[in-house]
Predict the 3D structure of the following.
Amino acid sequence: PKRAHIPLLDTDPGQVLSEQYDLVCNGFEVAGGSIRIHERPLQRKIMELIGFSWEEAEDQFGHMLEAFEYGAPPHGGIAPGVDRLVALMAGEPNIREVMAFPKTAQATDLMASAPSSVVQRQLDDLHIALAIKEKEKKA
């Protein structure tokens, strides 16, 4: 969050703005970035606000939270979307036509082992219900 907005986390969290930015070329977003949270207490506060218990946060993000204890400096970055740049240069409106690592026909990403399973609470937070069909037995 913007430094000036941190006090709002306790009183009006919906008004808190982040430090983020985009690079736009001719109306197309070609990169985006932000200043990252680098303090454990602030990260804990944010995780509590979005519904994580401290135990869940430690379980899922403990490696990152522990790193903050070693004095991570303020840091940020910007990530150019190379596929977006290539689509822009090629005059292609759909980046799927120029992606270097598209998903498989089953919508899986072999490089990232995605999709991965999620816990029920994550689905509940997003109001997603799964209806898993049993595979048909072949005779």
Remarks:
- The domain at 3-102 is CATH 3.30.930.10 (BirA Bifunctional Protein; domain 2).
- The chain has one domain: 3-102.
- Strands lie at 20-25, 28-35, 76-80.
- The longest strand covers residues 28-35.
